[in-house]
Specification:
It is built from 13 helices and five strands. It is globular. It folds into two domains: about 160 residues, 3-Layer(aba) Sandwich (Rossmann fold); about 110 residues, no CATH class. It is an alpha/beta fold.
Length: about 290
């Protein structure tokens, strides 16, 4: 069953919560799926939408409701980032309200799920409009807010929604998903390198596509090191270098001397930004 929640990897708690809603038959008007990018929030939203209208509540892919969902009859994605392209403030809110009103009517299926991606980008007026739709829901309409920053949503909106946390994916899940998407088996070195993805399949795929962009490795190390803080964490970055160095050197032998020198600089407590700039200059000269 290609649209089953059972096939969601690495999110047992989230899946268990969603399946309990399906089993209860009582569907709240709104959910908030929150967690970092690349952990399956949107995929889970779509599969939950399929399961809601499915005759067996499993997203079987066989019943009439599932077939209708294949054509978008019960699922719609609204990406908030689309409203911020060449649009003034007033127009953004007006367009968003119009989009919400479009779905506030009867649909052919039992449930119609509106998934709002990048919902943390909504301004106060947009959140107020959505809150009204949630508090006065149309029959069978369910809203799923997708966000990596739940704190950007106001307290009232959070209190009216079921909160579903999506955790970073473990390395086994990243390997399985990467191999499925790329339709090939990852090498040992690639499996080691995607540890830098920190639980995100989208970042794992970025790392695996860096074949012709050596400086991107350094940026990736920086990105993962500074994710939770603007301060430089020398020990954290050194640990990541130590873990990934053997695989990087094996895959990119031309970088060996520069990377070893950089590792030595880290061990000697060098100033991280300066050490990175030195490393970038050295690697950029290697072709």
């Amino acid at each position: 069953m290609k649209n089953s929640l059972n096939d969601i990897l690495g999110q047992k708690r989230a899946v268990r919560l969603l399946k309990s809603v399906l089993d209860s038959g009582r569907v709240p008007p709104a959910f908030i799926f929150y967690g970092q990018d690349g952990v399956g929030k949107m995929t889970s939203a779509k599969r939950f939408a399929f399961s809601l209208s499915c005759q067996t509540k499993t997203g079987c892919g066989i019943c009439e409701a599932c077939k209708a969902n294949e054509f978008g009859e019960g699922f719609r994605v609204i990406d908030i980032s689309d409203y911020f392209e060449n649009s003034v403030e007033k127009n953004k809110v007006s367009a968003f309200r119009k989009e919400l009103n479009t779905h506030s009517h009867a649909h052919d299926l039992n449930y119609f799920v509106v998934s709002i991606d990048n919902s943390d980008l909504m301004n106060e007026s947009m959140q107020a409009s959505l809150l009204k739709s949630i508090e006065e829901p149309a029959n069978g309409v369910c809203y799923i807010l997708i966000t990596k920053s739940i704190d950007a949503l106001n307290a009232t909106l959070r209190s009216r929604s079921v909160l579903v946390r999506f955790s970073p994916l473990n390395i086994d899940s990243l390997i399985i998903l990467s191999e499925k998407i790329l339709t090939r088996t990852l090498t040992y070195n690639e499996k080691e390198l995607i540890k830098l993805a920190e639980g995100s399949i989208s970042r794992a795929l970025e790392i695996l596509s860096m074949e012709n962009s050596p400086l991107a490795w350094i940026d990736e190390l920086l990105k993962s090191s500074s994710k939770r803080s603007h301060k430089w964490d020398r020990l954290s970055l050194q640990k990541k270098m130590e873990e990934s160095m053997p695989a990087i050197i094996s895959s990119r032998k031309k970088w060996k001397e520069s990377l070893i020198n950089f590792d030595r600089a880290l061990s000697e407590k060098a100033y991280i930004p300066l050490a990175l700039e030195v490393l970038k200059r050295r690697i950029s000269s290697i072709r």
